[in-house]
Amino acid sequence: MHASASQWDLPLVLEALVTETFEPLELSSLKALSWKTALLLALTSAKRVSELTALSVHPSCLLIRGDRSGATLRPNPSFTPKSLRSLFRSRAIQLGGFNLPPHIEAREAKLHLLCPVRALACYVERTAAIRRTEQLFVCFGDGVAGKALSKKRLTGWLCGCITHAYGRAGRALPTGVRAHSTRAVPVSNSLIQQRECRRYMHVGVLVYARLLHKMLSPGHVWLLLVVCACRGNA
Question: CB–CB of 179/161 below 8 Å?
Answer without folding.
Answer: no
